[in-house]
């Protein structure tokens, strides 16, 4: 956190400058800077900054769902109702909840993981456990909120004991992901870890060779990086993840415009 004590009399710009300085130092140390909420309250009014800080990380802006996004929301909800009781593989019998995915239905950026874990299975939401908390911070570190993007997994049901998905489970579940992407129509995808990257791109090449560069899936740009759980096991991966998501943000701005 900030070393200096915040004085209510400090101007908004001084607070932002202090946050920028701390962010810069954190980056130089080789760690992802997961910023605190930059909203500053003044006389009951919430001020949300809209410019970029010097490190190149865009400050979070409120999400706006377009008309197209609202149409997507209806389509996604209808599709969820259609597939939520799926019993095409054995995971349908062992799951607690079908984890469809969540976020902005009009999102231009989609994050794809491997499969739900215990917390996700319990809540029916993707990335809500420790890995999910870290993913949220990673998303915020490049100027987005969870509700700005869409988060999904290759599998919609948790494999028992968090084992790796079986090929037949992926085979019957991957069409659901394809349909979701068809509805959302993202401009860019970030795959998290080997399983999601290799499955989506239909490759056996490892994440260490694929990460940090522009890839392609059916005309949609893909940027691969390590799964948040890998960062929890090995914090050194945070350095590479930070490089990857800075590149992701750069590509997003190129494809979508920095104001979007």
Q: Gist?
A:
This protein has 260 residues and is of the alpha/beta class. The chain has helices spanning 12-28, 67-83, 91-94, 118-123, 130-141, 167-184, 194-201, 207-210, 228-233, 237-256, and strands spanning 40-42, 45-47, 102-103, 109-113, 150-153, 188-192, 215-217, 220-225. The strands form two sheets. The protein has a six-stranded mixed β-sheet, sandwiched between helices. A two-stranded antiparallel sheet has the order 1-2.
Written account of the structure:
There is one protein chain. With 260 residues, the chain is α/β, with parallel strands linked by helices. The chain has two domains: 56 residues, no CATH class; 190 residues, Uracil-DNA glycosylase-like domain (Uracil-DNA Glycosylase, subunit E, 3-Layer(aba) Sandwich), CATH 3.40.470.10. The longest helix has 20 residues. The protein is globular. The protein is built from ten helices and eight strands. It is 43% helix and 12% strand.
Global geometry: globular
Mean pLDDT: 82
- What integer value in Å does the Rg equal? 19 Å
Number of domains: 2
- The SS-based structural class is alpha/beta
Major sheet attributes? 6 strands, mixed
Distance between the termini: 29 Å
Q: In what range is the share of β-strand residues? A: 5-15%
* Percentage of residues assigned to helices: 40-55%
What is the annotated CATH architecture of the largest domain? 3-Layer(aba) Sandwich
Instruction: Write out the strand line-up for the largest beta sheet, numbering strands in chain order.
Output: 3-5-4-6-8-7
Runs in which pLDDT lies below 50 for 5 or more consecutive residues are 1-6, 25-64
CATH T-level topology of the largest domain:
Uracil-DNA Glycosylase, subunit E
Helical region count?
10
CATH superfamily of the largest domain: Uracil-DNA glycosylase-like domain
Give the helices and strands as they follow along the chain: HEEHHEEHHEHEHHEEHH
CATH class of the largest domain: Alpha Beta
Number of β-strand runs: 8
């Amino acid at each position: 956190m900030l070393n200096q004590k915040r004085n209510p009399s400090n101007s908004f710009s001084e607070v932002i400058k202090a946050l920028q300085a701390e962010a810069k130092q954190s980056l130089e140390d080789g760690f992802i800077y997961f910023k605190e909420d930059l909203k500053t309250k003044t006389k009951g009014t919430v001020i949300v900054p809209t410019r970029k800080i010097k490190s190149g990380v865009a400050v979070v802006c409120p999400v706006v769902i377009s008309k197209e996004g609202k149409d997507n929301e209806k389509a996604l909800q209808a599709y969820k109702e259609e597939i939520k009781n799926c019993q095409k593989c054995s995971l349908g019998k062992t799951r607690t909840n079908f984890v469809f995915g969540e976020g902005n239905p009009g999102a231009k950026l989609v994050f794809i993981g491997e499969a739900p874990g215990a917390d996700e299975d319990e809540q029916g939401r993707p990335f809500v456990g420790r890995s999910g908390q870290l993913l949220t911070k990673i998303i915020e570190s490049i100027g987005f909120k969870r509700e700005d993007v869409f988060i999904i997994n290759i599998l919609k049901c948790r494999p028992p004991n968090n084992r790796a998905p079986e090929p037949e489970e992926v085979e019957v579940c991957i069409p659901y992901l394809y349909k979701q992407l068809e509805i959302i129509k993202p401009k860019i995808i970030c795959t998290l870890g080997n399983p999601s990257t290799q499955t989506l791109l239909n490759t056996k090449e490892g994440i260490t060779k694929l990460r940090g560069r522009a890839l392609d899936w059916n005309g949609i740009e893909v940027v691969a990086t390590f799964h948040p759980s890998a960062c929890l096991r090995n914090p050194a991966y945070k350095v590479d993840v930070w490089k990857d998501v800075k590149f992701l943000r750069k590509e997003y701005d190129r494809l979508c415009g920095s104001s979007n």
